[in-house]
Design brief:
heterodimer, A: 598 residues, alpha+beta, Dipeptide-binding Protein, domain 3, 2 domains, 4-stranded mixed sheet, 16 helices, B: 739 residues, Jelly Rolls, 5-stranded mixed sheet, 19 helices, 48% helix
């Protein structure tokens, strides 16, 4: 258990950092004018302390680990892989939308037989070609060690890994929908390789580059490493301190700003203050996703709203609550009511929100009625029409007290704390809920009726991740998906029922321990796997409908609401250089960020 | 020897062709006028050989108009002729006609002094013979008369008519004793012969030489005696014939005064030449004629009394004949005859006048029946003039003033007809003047005035059926003409307007407000009632509306669309907007036209009905700032057949370089919406940026196709231009994207 907290947000090794002055005695003794003057002096002296660097906060005990092919437990990890690893074609953005830039490949074209030719940039160096010398926290030098050039073998290794990961990796769905089996021919003498793309569509440049936008690992890497550090992209990972690495501009890179620092904090409650105090200059998610009253000076900050990537749900313990109880508990935990209470809607303390479409305080848009969030493709396009049971809650079915636990140590502490209060509010849950905090280790024991969890990093597109919800190891410290598949003689994979084991998921779903619902649970598992493993959109739509329908019967969770997402930037940056898009790829344009000229 | 050979041959040939041999009489021939002189050769007769050829020269006569008479014992064995030129059988010559050709022994030829001599040419002798021939020079008249005298005497003798009856006729003579037909027939035959002979004698007399009358020529004296006898007999026969015919005519008309008076001119002529006839005959005729004239008065009076029409009296000529007969006899007609004649004269004048008027009315009626040029002002001017003439020509009625005859039925009828004609003339004059007024208005396109006149014509009632009929014809024709004219001019005006403006692109909505789309006049009258007027208005309006809402917008849309597609840079926006403006008025069902309009209407979503096919469409400005920045819009609607329950597509948008080339520094689009909901490059949506390396193509994905509804993808962008951009869009099933 890592509960270490750090009061100082800026790592001490930062070369351009100025030490804060001790301002207390002098300022207190001075008068108001003196205080103002002192404040002004302080401001002028400290305002440039983050110049030349990008400083992003993270929860200290949620150290980002990088696996470019798998989702991770922290959304920051998925963002960081964008700056560290190259694909053949990197996804980036400009003011008009997504663009695909040459990464490790140069697109040559596609012929009539759907053969895609790509010239590999074999002159690109892996970051381990350099020797990095640190002095304590300070980067001393980056020196060429030996050339470790990118090669077709690296690409081959990467495809092999993606193939092995199968449906666990979104990249598998991405690539296999175009190339099956995963592989290529070449390279020839000109370092040109050829992919055989499927012939069922017109492959536009954009589509081809999207398919080939999976990040590439060096050949020989550990297939199951927890953290991948060696990339080829604009930023290279520095040696870690306390298990966390900062990033520096690669000698081969073209980034405008040289350093990316990850600043650890205990929880997110102080993020806005840290930003205001100029201890960080980028805040990718505000608490509650709401506008911060202390950051409303547009001359100092600019914002960008994103689509939701996190939803809060109470995942019912199927070992403690039967189906009827879960159904009534779901009705009791009204997402709209809870959200209104959480955001203090209608009060002076209302937490104001804004979405990327410009809608303000549209709280009801964030209320979920299905395991598929309302912002997801499947709900927005009405592929799924969630059934809303508006009948009164049958409290008689429920236990006297519905015990809902929450672990507050892995992000969203602010939200968790307020939510526990809300759930314990009789006006919201009719006095039938006892919400309380537990430690991460207690989750696996399941001594609660429901677990309040923030599911982060979900995608609103076709690749909504059900594994993350239903097959994740009940351990918030690590990120592990308990997917067990079986291959038949023809090499066709199917999901193994042992994927659902009580101690292996948040719901304590286990067909062997719940004979009354065994068939439905197994069926649900089939649908779950079907949804995640198919690369056909129509199949995904149908599986989504089935998953939703069966989940409505099983009432495995109260899906409550999605969390708005709002990013803040200081005007240290030229806002016109910050082209953010999507969520996971938010930092892919980071090398283009510029500081605003004074 | 060789030189002599041809001559020998010619001689042999000539041997078979004997030359003409001249016979030279002795004594020589003499032209003196006397009896026949025998032709001899020294007291001998000439002998002629069979097949011999001969000729004899005769001297010319002493005077002109003589005959050379030749007498043969037989003409049968000879073939001969007389000519005034003879050259041994060679050269041209003319045969003089033998005036006694049929005679067996004589030949006679007319000769004169113009020639030198005459040749009797005997060109064929059928057998050896002795020529027994006499000749005589004799004047033509004598020869002719001598030949005819006996015949003339016989004709006269045989055709003399007995004069007893003629001489017996007097007032007491019973004409019934004469069988007129036989007598006249016999007389005419004889008279014909006598007249023919008399004509011959007149002609013969012209042959006599001057001074013959004073001579004591026996032949001439015989001629004179014969001619006098003939003349006397002919005069008698002609007079007698006339008497017989007159009496026969009178006899044939007994019981028929009309027939009598029909023959009255001949009677009058007879009486006028009464001196040619015996006085007793003339007296008898006069007595007879007076009696018949007196008898005829009551006959004609009865006819007048029974006449029950207003037509001219048919026997006026007979009355005139009667008056002439009276005059030929030197007598005054009776007062009754004179009164009747005066009445008939006046009656006929008035009847003829009203008949003429009626005939003119009939001509007018016929003219109307023949569908005259209704819109000709000259027609009505002529009609008014004609009616004026009719009125002027109508007589002042005097017939009724005749004491006796004024009460007759025919007079009453005539009076009525004259009054009717006058009344009709008055009514017609008013009608025709109204017609003239109407046509003047119509030809001046004064529709309301014309229609007002038409209403008045229709509203007026006439007691005279003919005029009423004409009035109805007027109304029908005028109503038709007004309708046709209004229709035609309305059509012409709108046709011309459409033709002139079909390619116009400025102020198109204003075009549809043009007066060309309103009839030149709203038909407000129809004799059949308001419903009929309404139908007429609708017929015109239907045509106009068809142009306004179909042909005009259709032609305009086609023309402007053709220009637009030929060069979208040439006032493309104006053209596209004009097409859309026209499209708002188009009510036809031509899908191609609708498609053209829709293509130019940025508000209309362009259907994509087939996956993987690029579809061109226009991006058009929705603002109007020709020299500044404008907002552009295009819309796409997926209508792709799909079996999927939730079909979804990516849409690829190929943009003009001009629009997309700065997409890297600023967003090329202002907004992209689906069903008016903005979509951004967030969440489930991916919007790729157009760049040079992707041929300025942007992709929007995923776009759900609402199978039952309308998921409209709308793109708005701004550009510092005012033009039409061509954009290509393509939809296909999207790939699953990670980002």
């Amino acid at each position: 258990m890592d509960t270490t907290t750090q009061e100082t947000a800026i790592p001490s090794w930062t070369p351009k950092q100025e030490k804060p002055r001790n301002r207390k005695p002098l300022i207190i003794l001075a008068g108001v004018i003196v205080l103002l003057i002192a404040g002004a002096v302080y401001y002028f002296l400290t305002r440039d302390k983050l110049r030349g660097m990008i400083v992003i906060p993270y929860i200290a005990h949620q150290k980002p680990t990088i696996d470019p092919h798998l989702p991770t437990s922290t959304s920051l990890s998925d963002k960081l892989e964008e700056i560290q690893f190259d694909a053949l074609f990197n996804v980036s953005a400009n003011p008009s939308g997504i663009v695909y830039e040459d990464g490790l490949g140069e697109f040559l074209g596609i012929d009539q037989n759907n053969i895609v030719s790509v010239r590999l940039k074999t002159n690109k160096l892996w970051h381990d070609s350099y020797a990095i010398t640190m002095d304590d926290d300070e980067l001393k030098s980056i020196d060429k060690k030996q050339d470790h050039l990118f090669s077709a073998a690296d690409l081959g290794f990467t495809l092999k890994r993606i193939q092995a990961l199968g449906s666990l990796s979104p990249d598998y769905i991405l690539v296999s929908q175009a190339i099956d089996p995963l592989g290529f021919e070449g390279p020839d003498a000109s370092n040109v390789i050829r992919f055989k793309f499927r012939g069922d569509r017109i492959w536009k440049d954009t589509d081809i580059k999207e398919v080939l936008s999976f990040k590439i690992l060096p050949d020989g890497s550990d297939m199951n490493a927890l953290n991948y550090t060696n990339g080829t992209a604009a930023f290279m990972m520095l040696p870690p301190k306390d298990g966390v690495s900062n990033y520096h501009k690669s000698p081969d890179g073209t980034a405008n700003i040289a350093d990316l620092l990850l600043s650890p904090f205990v929880d997110n409650s102080t993020f806005t203050t840290e930003l205001r105090n100029n201890n960080i200059n980028v805040l990718l998610d505000t608490p509650f996703g709401s506008l911060s009253p202390i950051l409303d000076d547009t001359s100092d900050y600019f914002t960008k709203s994103n689509v939701s990537t996190t939803f809060f749900a109470v995942l019912f313990n199927t070992q403690r609550l039967n189906r009827d109880q879960r159904r009534e508990a779901r009705k009791l935990l009204s997402g709209q009511q809870i959200m209104n209470a959480l955001y203090k809607v209608g009060t002076e303390q209302q937490r104001n929100i804004i979405d990327y479409k410009g809608n303000k305080n549209n709280y009801s848009d964030y209320v979920n009625r299905s395991v598929f969030p309302s912002t997801s493709y499947y709900i927005e396009e009405e592929v799924i029409a969630p059934i809303v049971d508006s009948s009164p809650v049958n409290l008689a079915v429920l236990p006297d007290t519905l015990r809902i636990a929450a672990c507050m140590n892995f992000g969203y502490r602010e939200e968790y704390a307020d939510l526990i209060d809300v759930l314990n509010t009789p006006a919201v849950t009719r006095g039938r809920v006892k919400a309380f905090a537990i430690q991460n280790e207690e989750i696996r024991a399941g001594n609660f009726d429901g677990l309040l969890v923030a599911m982060s990093g979900y995608r609103s597109n076709f690749l909504f991740d059900l594994y993350d919800i239903f097959l994740r190891e009940p351990d918030l410290r690590t990120y592990k998906i308990n997917l067990v598949t079986t291959s038949d003689a023809q090499g066709n994979y199917s999901i193994n029922p042992i994927s659902f084991k009580a101690e292996k998921n948040f719901f304590r779903l286990d067909p062997d321990l719940n004979t009354a619902e065994r068939a439905d649970i197994l069926q649900f598992l089939e649908y779950l796997y079907g949804f995640m493993s198919t690369r056909q959109i129509g199949d995904k739509q149908e599986y989504a409908r089935r998953v939703d329908a069966l989940e409505q019967q099983l009432s495995l969770g109260a899906w409550m609401f999605s969390l708005p997402s709002l990013a803040y930037f200081t005007t240290q940056f030229d806002s016109s250089s910050v082209d953010l898009y999507g969520v996971a790829s938010q930092l892919s344009t980071m090398k283009k960020w510029r500081e605003r000229e004074k | 020897m060789r030189r002599l050979f041809p001559l020998v041959v010619l001689s042999i040939l000539m041997y078979g062709c004997p030359a003409y041999k001249e016979l030279s009489p002795d004594p020589e021939l003499s032209p003196a006028e006397r009896g026949y002189v025998e032709l001899k050769n020294d007291e001998e007769h000439f002998t002629l050989d069979k097949d011999g050829k001969y000729f004899i020269k005769f001297p010319k006569p002493e005077r002109d108009r003589f005959n050379l008479v030749l007498s043969f014992n037989s003409k049968n064995n000879l073939r001969y002729f007389l000519t005034d030129k003879f050259d041994g059988g060679e050269g041209p010559f003319a045969r003089i006609k033998d005036e006694m050709e049929g005679n067996d022994t004589l030949s006679a030829y007319a000769i004169n002094t113009s020639g030198q001599e005459y040749y009797l040419v005997i060109d064929s002798v059928l057998q050896d013979l002795t020529l027994m021939m006499k000749y005589r020079y004799v004047p033509e008249w004598r020869f002719a008369f001598e030949n005819k005298y006996a015949e003339y005497s016989r004709i006269l003798r045989e055709n003399l008519v007995d004069r007893t009856t003629y001489n017996m006729i007097d007032q007491n003579f019973d004409l019934s004793n004469i069988r007129f037909a036989e007598e006249i027939g016999s007389l005419e035959t004889r008279t014909k012969s006598i007249r023919s002979m008399n004509n011959d004698l007149v002609k013969l007399e012209q042959l006599f030489p001057p001074g013959i009358a004073s001579s004591r020529d026996t032949a001439y004296q015989n001629f004179v005696a014969l001619r006098n006898q003939t003349t006397d007999e002919l005069r008698f026969q002609e007079n007698y014939g006339t008497v017989l015919k007159v009496f026969k005519l009178e006899q044939d008309s007994h019981g028929n005064p009309g027939k009598f008076l029909d023959a009255a001119p001949e009677f009058a002529d007879f009486m006028s030449n009464g001196s040619r006839y015996r006085q007793p005959i003339v007296d008898k005729a006069k007595e007879m004629f007076l009696k018949r004239l007196t008898e005829s008065q009551s006959y004609f009076d009865n006819q007048l009394r029974a006449k029950n029409d207003a037509k001219p009296v048919a026997f006026k000529k007979q009355l005139d004949n009667g008056k002439k007969l009276y005059a030929s006899m030197g007598m005054q007609p009776s007062a009754e005859f004179t009164g009747m004649s005066a009445f008939v004269d006046r009656f006929n004048v008035e009847a003829a006048a009203v008949q003429s008027a009626n005939e003119k009315f009939r001509q007018i009626d016929h003219a109307f029946d023949a569908n005259p040029p209704w819109l000709s002002e000259a027609l009505y001017a002529d009609l008014v003039a004609k009616v004026g003439d009719i009125k002027a020509d109508l007589p002042q009625l005097q017939s009724p003033n005749f004491e006796k005859y004024g009460r007759y039925t025919c007079t009453s009828l005539l009076e009525a007809e004259v009054r009717n004609a006058a009344a009709r003339a008055d009514a017609s004059q008013v009608l025709f003047q109204s017609g003239q007024e109407y046509v003047q208005h119509l030809n001046a396109n004064q529709w309301s005035s014309a229609e007002q006149t038409l209403r008045r014509i229709n509203a007026t009632s006439d007691a005279i059926p003919a005029v009423m009929k004409e009035r109805r014809l007027f109304v029908r024709a005028f109503e038709d003409e007004l309708f046709n004219r209004v229709k035609q001019l309305s059509f012409q005006r709108v046709d011309a307007f459409v033709k002139a403006n079909e390619a116009s692109i400025d102020n198109v909505p204003q075009l549809y407000l043009d007066s060309a789309f309103i009839p030149v006049h709203q038909i407000g009258f129809a004799a059949a009632g308001e419903a009929a007027a309404q139908r007429k208005r609708e017929e015109i309006q239907k045509y106009i509306d068809n142009l306004k809402y179909r042909d005009f917008p259709a032609a305009s849309i086609r023309a402007i669309y053709r220009d637009l597609t030929a060069n979208i840079s040439s006032r493309g926006v104006e053209r596209a907007r004009a097409i859309v403006a026209h499209g708002k008025y188009y009510r036809g069902d031509d899908k191609q036209l609708r498609s053209m309009v829709n293509e130019c209407d940025p508000a209309v979503a362009k259907w994509i009905i087939k996956p993987k096919d690029y579809r061109k469409l226009y991006a058009l400005p929705v603002t109007t700032n020709p020299r500044g920045t404008n907002e552009y819009v295009f819309r796409v609607l997926l209508k792709i057949p799909s079996e999927a329950q939730f079909p979804v597509y990516e849409i690829n948008i190929k943009l003009p370089k001009e629009v997309a080339e700065k997409a890297g520094s600023q967003s090329w689009y202002q907004s992209i919406t689906i069903n008016k909901k903005p979509i951004k490059n967030e969440g489930r949506f991916t919007i790729t940026a157009p760049r040079e390396d992707n041929n300025y193509e942007s992709q929007v994905s995923p776009v759900q196709m609402d199978k039952a509804g309308n998921n409209v993808l709308e793109v708005r962008f701004k550009a510092p231009t005012f033009k039409v951009y061509e954009v290509s869009t393509m939809a296909q099933v999207p790939i699953i994207r990670k980002n």
